[in-house]
Amino acid sequence: MKRILVDMDGVLADVYSRFFDLHEQETGTRLKLSDVSGMLEAEAFKNQINWVTTPGFFRTVPVMEGSVEGLNKLNALYDVVVNSMATEFPLSLTDKQLWMHDHFPFISWKQLVFCGNKSLIRADIMIDDHPKNLDNFTGETLIFTQPHNVFMKDLKHKRVSSWQEIESLLIKNS
Amino acid sequence: MKRILVDMDGVLADVYSRFFDLHEQETGTRLKLSDVSGMLEAEAFKNQINWVTTPGFFRTVPVMEGSVEGLNKLNALYDVVVNSMATEFPLSLTDKQLWMHDHFPFISWKQLVFCGNKSLIRADIMIDDHPKNLDNFTGETLIFTQPHNVFMKDLKHKRVSSWQEIESLLIKNS
Known about the structure:
Two copies of one chain form a homodimer. By secondary structure, chain A is of the alpha/beta class. Chain A contains eight helices and six strands. The first copy, chain A, has helices at residues 15-27, 33-36, 41-44, 48-52, 67-77, 93-103, 131-134, 163-172; strands spanning 3-7, 79-84, 112-115, 125-128, 140-144, 158-160. In chain A, strands 3-2-1-4-5-6 form a six-stranded parallel β-sheet. Strand 3 (112-115) of chain A pairs antiparallel with strand 3 of chain B, so a sheet runs across the interface.
């Protein structure tokens, strides 16, 4: 059974949706995806670092559309490991695990890895929204479209823009 | 540079010392190492599961004698990764990272892995007190003596009973 590493933020967790809500609460203006496309998250939202370092933030993020059904299907066919670079924000760790339990209760604690370097983990396939994580991975790589990566060209990773596309690629070919 | 996986509880964190304190606070009796040798932690301390699932517990554990100096030396010679099966206890995650920062500030967030399955991680050497983690590891394995493993014989792992012994083995041969 092939092992697949699935990222949390920007793949399972729709962090932009939460950023748009918080930006609107603070400024009164609702941004659109096109307003922040091609920018890093910290460039697009000047308070982003304050938001993500606030205890409780990661518990409030909505799930990515289609991710619950999609991950459940993958979990039946692959050795799924959900992996987040969470040690960058120590106060996020417990929130992130409780969030996984809230929304993906079929993923056990044995399938979770919170770390600061994804290249430590042995796997066959990686789904992530950040090229920095995918570029050094030796297996099959899928980049999940998010505003910060939408204009990146000539990537050596397959681009997927929805969980339906992930299912089409990985469930037919499992 | 060889990568070395270093366990937290029972290797860097002297959990038995904390268990003895809590047992004495609750019962008035101070146990000795010989009272709990050969028993699993949960057999030796009937409230152990309550203690380790209490938020804040892992922040209060003393460091293992010699571990700060020893890990600092290893960190100069090896690619050190500190690794804990922490997702078994979600409320421990943030406490464990803050504890690392309290006592081992020279270990960065990029060197930490909190997971539920150590066999996911790619490394050359593993130091752990639990044979269940060491048995399936394909590299060099060191078992750190703790009361629960002290009577185990015929292990295929090198036994070390102090951080001085770890230094003798790994610093001379690095």
